[in-house]
Amino acid sequence: MPVYRLKEGEVSFPNPRLAEEDGLLAVGGDLSVERLLLAYCNGIFPWYNPGEEILWWCPKKRFLIFPGEIHISHSMKKHIRKHKDEIRLNRDFQDTMHRCRMKREEEGTWIGDDMERAYLTLHNEGYAASVEAFEDGELAGGLYGVAIGKCFFGESMFSEIENGSKVALVGLAGLLKKQGFSFIDCQFYTPHLERMGGRYIEWEEYARLLKEGTS
User: Which residue has the higher pLDDT, 83 or 35?
Assistant: First the structure.
């Protein structure tokens, strides 16, 4: 079945259940606030190489971290006790997103100029947030993502020093737990996120949590 091509000037998406096995759902469209919000509220997100057409994804199995299930290893607990850590929310969204981009430049990144502009606009509209971790007064790492209702959709993270992104993720989970958030959508699996407590759930359960969290 051919991948669905989005119509110009029409902010809509096909049924997320029509995504390919690898999660690819549609191609084209734009990164307007309206389209991005519609996408995330339906479990869809953009992921593509800079300079190419926008690709929209919706994996049928989702890899999530539930804030109350964040796993802090023994070595990580030891690291946190050893240093004075501070978590800041929205210290500098634009800088954090750009650092995420720069850390991935050599291996290839999906964060291009258009993505930076689009998510900064989302942030200015109140739908995207960054979390930064400071260790002994120095910036250690951070992450950014989209927050809608009680759902947080993680996009990328960076470390300036060892364990910086882990400290930021632990800090994010703590903030979201206090605010009653349902989940952190990691979008795709990585061993690093699995060690931090991430796990797969089936699409039916994800769709239910998504509807409850964004309505």
Answer: 35
